[in-house]
Amino acid sequence: MDTPVLDRVNGPEDLKKLDVVDLRELAAEIRPLLITKLSQVGGHVGPNLGVVELTIALHTVFNSPVDHIVWDVSHQSYTHKILTGRKQAWTDPEHYDDVGPFTDPAESPHNYFNIGHTSTSIALADGMAVARDLRGSHENIIPVIGDGALSGGLAYEALSNAATLHSNLIIVVNDNEMSIAEDHGGLYKGLAELRETNGQSRNNLFKALGLDYKYVEGGNDIPSLLAAFTEVKDIDHPIVVHIHTKKGLGFAPAEANEEGWHWHAPFNPETGVALKQNDKPTYADVVLDELDSQIANNQPVVAITAAIPGGFHLKKFAAKHPDRYFDVGIAEQQSITFAAGLAEQGARPVAFENTTFLQRAYDQLSHDLGINKLPAVIVYAGGRVTGGDPTHQGTFDLAMLTNIPGMTVLTPANAAELRAMLQWALQQTAGPVAIRLPRGNADAEPLDADFDVNQMRVVNAGSQVALLAVGSMLPLAVEVAHRLQDKDGVNATIIDPRRVDALVDQNTLAKLQADHKLVVTLEEDSLAGGFGEKVSRYFGPTAVRTLNLGAKRRFDHEQTRDELMTEYQLTPDTATTAIEKLL
Amino acid sequence: MDTPVLDRVNGPEDLKKLDVVDLRELAAEIRPLLITKLSQVGGHVGPNLGVVELTIALHTVFNSPVDHIVWDVSHQSYTHKILTGRKQAWTDPEHYDDVGPFTDPAESPHNYFNIGHTSTSIALADGMAVARDLRGSHENIIPVIGDGALSGGLAYEALSNAATLHSNLIIVVNDNEMSIAEDHGGLYKGLAELRETNGQSRNNLFKALGLDYKYVEGGNDIPSLLAAFTEVKDIDHPIVVHIHTKKGLGFAPAEANEEGWHWHAPFNPETGVALKQNDKPTYADVVLDELDSQIANNQPVVAITAAIPGGFHLKKFAAKHPDRYFDVGIAEQQSITFAAGLAEQGARPVAFENTTFLQRAYDQLSHDLGINKLPAVIVYAGGRVTGGDPTHQGTFDLAMLTNIPGMTVLTPANAAELRAMLQWALQQTAGPVAIRLPRGNADAEPLDADFDVNQMRVVNAGSQVALLAVGSMLPLAVEVAHRLQDKDGVNATIIDPRRVDALVDQNTLAKLQADHKLVVTLEEDSLAGGFGEKVSRYFGPTAVRTLNLGAKRRFDHEQTRDELMTEYQLTPDTATTAIEKLL
């Protein structure tokens, strides 16, 4: 691809030498680079295509990194990376992996934070502005937040606090009329009115929160953006600059289906057709199938998502049961406390969550569901060793959930267990139940008819060594047991604990204590605060030794899942070796 | 006290028989009851005195518990309790303890939730309304939220979602112009404008979020309230009824100092003078004293609170350092992410938190501070076995904090350690540090000159048995050691671990393994996810046995601290007995 203008741009300072014609040409050069790389490696398509002009204008008017641009969520920062010395990661396929999908201070002085959760940018900028004022300097602080991220409570808390500052803060609201899925909530009525009235509507959230406000309709028009930013540069008080952009601009399939192209796996850049199709049923499909059955039996089931219906195929559910489907927007706190209200009134809410975003609702899980013993069901994805970016790391689920009193946490090892657990969770009324969704395609096993929440499942009754394998670790335990049998002549007990928040199966625990010298736990989540530590505490006063294998208490940055599993001794070789040392 | 009108009121149905003259008399009878009991047992003075008329009017117009009133925070629900069959808990000192300070479904069918954290009521009501619609019924759902609680992000998420409902929801905003401390944030400029314009101001947060809106100036005037509620009763869509009340109304000291009387210890009901004065320096004073020293040495220290300056004496700090003091309102997420922004720019933020409210910021602690390794300091109170209400239970601090990667958690046992830890936390730049504030008055010990974050403090070097005592448990360990010496002839090792998020002191750990058969941990927080489990995991593969003593994974309701400490084997008798069983 020829990129004559981009070839002259190695940093923001080079943009200042370009005229509007060049800047437009630059945008036209960047878009194909984005699409080409995205088509090969996947990523956030729509968000990045929508902010090409916005990013060019910001870097033309402001002086990054002296002026500080903070990208909310930061999944839309590709053009920012291209313009700040990292273009090779798009122009040269050999260097595609040189940069991550989010901002990362280790990558560039133009990045300030690792960010992968939404709605934090304004709060971060509030702090940066106060620190700047304390040291008496005057640079511009510019958080850039999408309209989807505005629905998160932290954005509101930060807007309200921004209004109390008396110095420069330029809050750019990138309004592309979309959350991850379509927008949900009264907030978006107000934003739509502002767009329709060129910013003149009476109902103005930002003004109601005490902030100065400016509207820019031409969010993909470089001259409009340059004019707006030039006007607010070095302003002496906080202001919201509300900019109307088009998500997915420049790639027809992404413009036509904004939700489907928010994030996309590798695709044919001509047609937009995904390179791999998966028509097999997933574990989420097992859940949805069971919910259909429950509804057919007149159960008052309600499905809730905080703006991530796609991963759970919830649009299928919504089409069938529109009055039972609630996308609350990016608002995880609301998703859980809303479920609490539903459950108190006898409905059966099922909240579909991603574990890393569910962290936003920790207090709601404890205070609203836990204390109140309300039977909401939380089906969550992502509880596993993920590799990749620490902002989406999935190893903290059990440390977060299993220590909340009254929260029953279930870790199905297969589809049969998953369905049995869900049936149980929806018929009991004792309290909240979290179910960790296995990953990948679901097998077609029949229902686990023996499921009992208070009993572990003994897969093999052996002696000497016991392997307690959490959910997905069951195949590993089976393989390790084979090796222990073959190499060491040990007939290891294999147990699927099924429930991991508490050790309540006294019969099985007594047998472990009576017949075993070593109890090993295997879990692909943080050892600190996880399941294994509960087992070690239990056996601590006894003669039974314990070995907890699992993830370190650490944010992982660049390692792959395979590398991490090896380091964490969660492969057949490494786990067997660790156990043999204690035989 | 004569209460001729109240004598005729045993439930909301009796209010319907009273005329306005009677209802006003009823308010005049209730206030002295509130003040008298509050003066003897302490409690939320201002919030309850402000809503006497509001509560009477709600129960006169609506039909609780068919109609559902949900009190946000629920610390203002005393009159609600008086009017719904629980008046004896105010009229008869023998029955003062019959009811709790918050709503609790176990107490009455007029309560729906245990609530003690703010900003949840609208989200709960959203869920209740949807459940009602699903079952096809039509009762009124009425969350009552104070203006202070409106600053929490969950309230905003819930308002925006409420606007998408198409059925009855009556959101009463009780605007008394105050958070716990004075209001902070642009939100409150908007509310003030609404009050000043009788609800006509252009800048209307509620309308901007897509909601219908009605203003009632006479929030302590029964006829105004009756008229307003009668008008909105059975409304077919969500509406905000914004009511202007006077916090502390009817008790002169509380009217004169609204912040000081938000919550108050027992006092002389004539003068308002507290029955017990405490002039001794607290641990919070030690922190503030150290911050003064740091600022005198030109450290860019910034103090942050989420609307609870009182417990930390932060108003003293604010008076001395107004440009370094930030009360972000009830907005714990903001308090932490704001600190992240400050720290990234080189300031030294110190966030003063209460552990139970800090749960709101779990994701911010992890994603914004933890991943980014930002050196913010969190000084928090309340980490202990509290007794009393589960919504303010303090035993979850270590399970919340110590499993977040990169979060150093320190548990000082005395003022000398506290100051040394704070000095260290403010000079290091490796990452966030949480310091659990001891309770009570601070001794005047000199600085702990030996403090090293990577070394445990060995208080007594013994053998056989080691006692690892977290913070406040050190005196217990000393006493238990005496008993073990006297009764069993064991010279127990006593260790103050100082740092509880990780076991990094390899020398001491090696000595424990070499010379000890039993390692006992003592902590007044949840065993599940806490410090002891980390110790049990560490020694699990060895011959050393472990015993973890601490709080159960349970929400405690009515037990006292003493009862709980006995149950948790954290008294000299119980702990010694538990240990002796393993000798």
From TrEMBL, chains A, B:
Q: Which InterPro entries match?
A: Dxylulose-5-P_synthase, THDP-binding, Transketo_C/PFOR_II, Transketolase-like_Pyr-bd, Transketolase_C, Transketolase_CS
- What sequence ranges are listed for the domain Transketolase-like pyrimidine-binding? 281-445
Q: Which Pfam families match?
A: DXP_synthase_N, Transket_pyr, Transketolase_C
Biochemical pathway: Metabolic intermediate biosynthesis; 1-deoxy-D-xylulose 5-phosphate biosynthesis; 1-deoxy-D-xylulose 5-phosphate from D-glyceraldehyde 3-phosphate and pyruvate: step 1/1
Entry annotated with the keyword Nuclease: no
The record, for Gene3D superfamilies, names:
3.40.50.920, 3.40.50.970
**Example GO molecular function:** 1-deoxy-D-xylulose-5-phosphate synthase activity
Q: What is its EC number?
A: 2.2.1.7
Q: Which NCBIfam families match?
A: PRK05444.2-2, PRK12315.1
Subunit structure and binding partners: Homodimer.
Q: Which protein family is it in?
A: Belongs to the transketolase family. DXPS subfamily.
Q: What is this protein called?
A: 1-deoxy-D-xylulose-5-phosphate synthase
